[in-house]
Design brief:
The chain has 272 residues and is α+β, with helices and mostly antiparallel strands. It folds into two domains: 66 residues, Winged helix-like DNA-binding domain superfamily/Winged helix DNA-binding domain (Arc Repressor Mutant, subunit A); 195 residues, Beta-Lactamase, CATH 3.30.450.40. 43% of the residues lie in helices and 17% in strands. The protein has nine helices and eight strands. The strands form two sheets. It has a six-stranded antiparallel sheet with strand order 5-4-3-8-7-6, sandwiched between helices. The longest helix is centred in the C-terminal third of the chain and has 27 residues. About 4% of the residues have low confidence.
Length: 272
């Protein structure tokens, strides 16, 4: 039999993980739990050290102790934790959904998405969505910035796959030209011939301290919202590149065990 109190507490913690600051009113609207129940849950988690009541911000936020809850789970790199508040901040400011994708064998997989935070998202759900490397913005943004040895290994795998979206792997000259275009621009977009054609994704690589690509950060928009892909890229590429640079800094802090969250100031630091 399920223990309802634990279910409720986990639901609250999960929702708080998506927000830099959570108010009682927001949690009530998102979880449907009565406000007195939310107060008791938050007080309990605060006493346990997992939640902090930030009176200056007028709400609650998760503490650094929350990271200990995932210490037994080894599949999610710190880059997702570092990138989460930036993805949320971008969506709050520009409304479009933002995603963080990681390499998984011969594709990238969306490990975090702000689809739930966007009222104009082209998708209902993208977390765990598997995306080809050669035709999708999130895939190309990662692949183009991998080191040569990793790139060769990945392309060899793509050549053995019969997915039509991996077809470019059989044409080395064309593939190298496409990857060089992405490197020169510093970002990638979705190929025009793949579905869905009513939207597009702009993505940039996210690097670690050693300068190795470890993820890609992308923003998805409806194509009808702009006169051209160029216009959309001019608007959002600087935003994504700036966020990727900040993610690198936060990744360094996390790796150095500096558990002093700066997420409450992130929205103001996203460029216009």
């Amino acid at each position: 039999m399920a223990i309802r109190a634990i279910e409720r507490a986990l639901r609250v913690l999960q929702e708080m993980n998506l927000q830099p600051i959570s108010t009682i009113a927001h949690l009530h609207a998102r979880t449907g739990l009565p406000k007195p129940t939310l107060v008791r849950i938050l007080q309990t988690m605060e006493e346990a050290g997992y939640v902090e009541n930030d009176h200056r911000q007028g709400g609650y936020q998760v503490s650094g102790l929350v990271t200990s809850l995932s210490s037994g789970y080894h599949k999610e790199p710190m880059v997702v934790e570092a990138g989460r508040p930036w993805a949320i901040a971008i969506t709050r400011k520009y409304k479009w959904p933002t995603s963080i994708a990681l390499l998984d064998h011969d594709a990238v997989v969306v490990r975090f998405s702000t689809v739930a935070e966007s009222s104009i998202s082209p998708f209902h759900k993208t977390v765990n969505m598997r995306l080809p490397l050669l035709t999708r913005g999130l895939g190309l943004a990662y692949l183009a910035f991998t080191d040569p040895e990793e790139l060769n290994l990945i392309v060899d795998m793509l050549r053995k796959c019969d997915d039509p979206e991996n077809g470019l792997a059989h044409f080395p000259d064309r593939l190298n030209k496409r990857l060089e275009q992405v490197r020169k621009a510093g970002y990638a977009t979705r190929s025009s011939f793949v579905e869905p054609k009513n939207s597009n994704t702009i993505a940039v690589p996210v690097f670690n301290e050693e300068g190795r690509a470890v993820a890609s950060l992308g923003l998805t928009y409806f194509t009808t919202a702009f006169r051209s892909e160029k216009e959309a890229c001019e608007r959002y590429v600087p935003v994504l590149k700036s966020a990727a640079s900040e993610i690198l800094l936060d990744l360094k802090r996390l790796q150095g065990n500096a558990l002093q969250p700066s997420v409450t100031t992130h929205p103001d630091r996203v460029p216009t």
